[in-house]
Amino acid sequence: MNNKKRGRTFLKIYLAFLTSIISFFTIYAFRFDVLQLSESDENSSIVDEVKIKRLNQKLYEINLNVDNNDKILSILQSELENYNYQVLMRSDNDEIAIPITKFESMIYNNKLSQGQFELLHFKNGDAYIEIYPTFKSYFSIYVIVDFIISILIFIICYFLFNYIDKKQLINKATQKLQNTRFGKRLSVELIGVNLLAVAIAISAYLFMYNNRYAYFSFIRDNVAENTNMKIADELQDMFKDVNINEKTYNKINNSLNNSFDSHTTVTLMDEKKPEMYLSTFYSYELYSSNNLYDVSAISSANSSTHTIKFKNKKIFAFISTSPVAPYAPSYLYTIIFIAISLYAITLIWFIQNKVKMILKLQEDVDILAAGNLTHEISILGGDEIGELGKNLNEMRISFYETMESENRMQDANKKLITSMSHDLRTPLTSLMGYLDILRLQKGDPKQSQVYLDKAAEKVEQIRSLSDQMFEYFLVYGQDENANLTLQSCEEWINYIEESVNLLKYQDYKIKMELERSGLLRLNMTLMKRAMDNIFSNLQKYADITSPITIISEIKKGHYCLLVENSKRKDIDDIESNHIGLKSVDRIIKLHNGTIKIKNTEQHFLILIELPMIV
Description:
The chain is of the alpha+beta class. Among the domains are: 46-134; 225-323; 407-476, Orthogonal Bundle (Helix Hairpins); 485-611, Heat Shock Protein 90 (2-Layer Sandwich), CATH 3.30.565.10. It is built from 17 helices and 16 strands. Helix 7 (186-210) runs antiparallel to helix 12 (327-369) and helix 13 packs antiparallel against helix 14 (445-476).
């Protein structure tokens, strides 16, 4: 597995794990609502009279004092294991502030947590006990079910992310957005992705921050239950060799304040002198509104009463702690990290997507560079990268068509050269034969004249073939400077008239009107060759029984020459490579002119327009 694949797998696991963790605490936040639905009988959590009676039977022979505190706590714990409670001793119907207390994992602000008051009978008097249900069994099962659901969510999310990655659903959706008018610029896309990443990060942070009570409640209910007992053990170890009296109060008080944080309150009370007590400082301002600690899971402390044995006596220790408070900063740092990671993941995904597009373009260009011009360039998105791909693809097509055209031209050149070489070799061979006969022959002058005529015929054939080669290379050769010079139309018109006279000599009927005035930039050699091609076509294809129209005029700053004729009926029997007209077109364009050709089954028309010099 390469680094890229490992990174994608880690990202999918991270997102699936994050989703399952958030789901776990979100589901945990609804535990009280589920409890209310499951507790159809409002009296199901009340301690029955039988248990209260059995409890009184055990306590009736015991005095309620500090010496018996541990024994009383043991009895209460055995009978009220799944309850929180607080016992207030009464003396002459006056309540004194030496309670026996156990408040842990308390349910707050819930109708199921309403207290149940009962009267307990001790040997030295009666006391009220306030009892609250804890529903420990229910919460244990709820946590297990919640954990199983979260595991299933993790598995589903992981396979879902795998499916999305495999089908590239996000990339397809992104490409659709890129094809809109908002996705035409990388700068706009980058701003949009940054805003989206910030929105995702802030939303995740606010969601986790506003639901921090679920996390803190879970820690309180499942992690920090035995905090008070640990503090009681620390107090016992701290003061077992210390006498407690008025002389040592300050020393003991300093020890208490130096040993415990601001989330813990330890109150030491002497049963004999309840007005004399020692207490640590408790930071209530931490739980003011709009504060990280401002949740009931933290601000509502776990409280319990313990007996501490000093060297000279036993006294009550009332311990109240917020065991979740130390976890609050780490939770804040964690959700900040998660928010930043979501922002980074969104931004990195966008950058990687763009890098992937660029690498795809590079891959396509490398294929083209290797010579495969048929490979199509990928057009990804509608931004500058997509536009670059589109332009590269158009360039590829243009270059491919040019290469194909050049290949066709090269093939045609090879065929033409091969054909011309063969055609030239044939008359040359014959010509050399006739010349050898003439050179060796002695006698009959008439026979020599016949060989001379045949030699002249072969020379004419060779000249015609060389002219065809010249015309071909003029048409398919590279652009060259025509070396135009300023001159009168007179010479050109005179050459046209000479060609017309030759047609008349061959019994062609001519209708002619020629304009002789005006100045043109001409290469007369090229223009004469163009006229030769036009009149050669007339000799080949024009119907000798129909008049040929040749008209020239000056129109809108251009010298216009029109040649029109009817076609012979046997024109299909005449071979042609059409190089002549292509040569004319090339020559006229070298003169910065235009040529229009209209060729039908019965008529042929050619119109030449050359710019005049004013």
